[in-house]
Amino acid sequence: MRCYFRRLIYLLLLVVSLVILYQLYIIIHKSINSQSPFIIIHLKNRTYRILSSSFKYNSHESYLNFAYFNVEQRSRVLYIDYLYDIPVSSQWQSSGHLYPIQIAQFGLSHWSRLKLNSKTKQNHIHRFERIQPSKNDYCSSWYIIKNKIFLSDTFIHFTISSNCSLHFQFLNNNIELIYSTMIINDLTSSTKIIIPLQGFPRQVNRHMLIDIEKSIQKILLIKNDFIQIRICGEPNSFINQLIIGNQTLYSQQAFYSATRWLLNTQDFKTGCWFIHVKRNYGNHHQYHLRMPWCSAMAQGQAASLLVRLYSLTKDIQHLLAIRRAIQPLWSSNMTRAYFNNRFLWLEEYPLESHGKGLFVLNGCLYALLGTIDVYTIDPQPYLLELINEIIISLHHMLPYYIHPTISNWSLYDLSHITMKSKINTASDSYHLVHIILLQCLSQLFKKTNFSTSQLFDLYARRFISAIS
Ligand SMILES: *[C@@H]1O[C@H](CO)[C@@H](O)[C@H](O)[C@H]1NC(C)=O
Ligand SMILES: *[C@@H]1O[C@H](CO)[C@@H](O)[C@H](O)[C@H]1NC(C)=O
Ligand SMILES: *[C@@H]1O[C@H](CO)[C@@H](O)[C@H](O)[C@H]1NC(C)=O
Ligand SMILES: *[C@@H]1O[C@H](CO)[C@@H](O)[C@H](O)[C@H]1NC(C)=O
Ligand SMILES: *[C@@H]1O[C@H](CO)[C@@H](O)[C@H](O)[C@H]1NC(C)=O
Ligand SMILES: *[C@@H]1O[C@H](CO)[C@@H](O)[C@H](O)[C@H]1NC(C)=O
Known about the structure:
Elements: H1 2-33, E1 38-43, E2 46-51, E3 77-80, E4 87-89, H2 100-116, E5 126-131, E6 143-144, E7 149-150, E8 155-160, E9 164-170, E10 175-180, E11 192-196, E12 202-207, H3 208-216, E13 224-225, E14 227-233, E15 239-244, H4 247-265, E16 280-281, E17 284-288, H5 296-313, H6 316-330, E18 336-339, E19 343-346, H7 361-377, H8 381-397, H9 415-418, H10 428-445, H11 450-465
Parallel strand pairs: 10-11
Antiparallel strand pairs: 1-2, 3-4, 5-15, 6-14, 7-13, 8-12, 8-15, 9-10, 9-14, 16-17, 18-19
Helix pairs in contact: 2-4, 2-5, 5-6, 5-7, 6-7, 7-8, 7-10, 10-11
């Protein structure tokens, strides 16, 4: 009898350990197969992501590591535009300007977030079908949301159909955020933030947290809050389909806001998104950018964004806009410079004097990636020619981007050669941008041109060795 029990216990133990082993096997197997496409790098307290071997680039999937960008939150973003719901930049003009590079990046980051987070669970979503002023009153009574809302989840979407204002009271933070198409002169209370929306009827897509933080120019301290809502305006005004907290919807609409602006503002003749800001380069008072200027990087990133739009719509108008976007890269010298009068470069910041160039590395690589994206949906011979010409330049020029004294560190541009200026060392973040672009290009050429793939891999490795 005893013996029998002992055997039974051994048998049970065996079964249990087999089950545990099997579970372990599944976990390990899974973690090998579902290795993250990114490797996290910590550098001086900041987190960066470069590509791992399981990253696969594709012209209609996420764009590099942009899912981790938060373009709206950057200090260079002054506020979110009142008509287009896209970021307004303060990069080259302190009063703000719409900057195609930033707008394309805004679209690409939201597209990438949608691709990456498609399976994550949504937070609680609040929905109001129709809000309108009370019969005898200019304003409605307050609608109270019963649960606390995390401020990071305050994505809102609504349709504004007439002249009115929509008020949100953040009770614990003591802030009233007002979206209004009317002119509001009530500046008596410093706790009121007014976002002067333009254009109606239209759909509005915003992140309340960003609107507040850009207005008060600081970070909110109380991270979650109770919110109440009301509308004020003429009796026939109303707000439809007010949705709070749907991040997927917000990213989707942000993607469309960016593409809509690009499609509406492209210059039909040249294909450029001209930038009308007067600008010198760095400290070089004698070197002006062309005015207005057409940036190869803007053209390339906008093309990458529109290629992703086209993958959804298959709309011929979108394809034509993509062809126009790439046109200034190959059909004229509008965005180009020649290194040693010979090697073709796509300039992020084209200079006024056509003989001169800055040769900013990341700008040219982004433009190249855009051209490759376009080639995948529209394989025209002139694109292949351009791609090959740039690769020949890179074969010749990449050695110049190695820092002369900091081992295996990269340079931002070649202005020290072409303009005899001080060496322009890449910042940490640009050094990592160089790495990720070279990694991606190396992967893209692996099948079609091995020696080119090797070249990019070699420089990616050198630059990585400087941070590890
Ligand atoms: C990194 O963060 C720690 C703690 O927040 C701080 O003490 C340190 O000065 C930071 N270092 C750098 C290089 O910013
Ligand atoms: C909206 O209201 C403002 C007053 O706040 C007025 O100046 C403006 O003309 C109105 N717009 C339309 C289209 O009714
Ligand atoms: C959030 O928005 C997305 C995109 O429109 C939609 O597919 C999804 O159903 C919405 N989620 C909820 C819970 O309403
Ligand atoms: C661009 O400039 C180069 C060098 O000056 C010249 O050889 C070439 O013909 C020009 N290309 C176009 C398309 O204008
Ligand atoms: C690879 O690219 C380089 C530069 O464009 C070109 O010279 C070479 O012929 C290409 N090789 C192949 C196999 O296509
Ligand atoms: C630069 O990187 C390469 C590749 O990782 C490495 O072999 C080389 O030793 C590095 N050079 C220096 C000076 O650290």
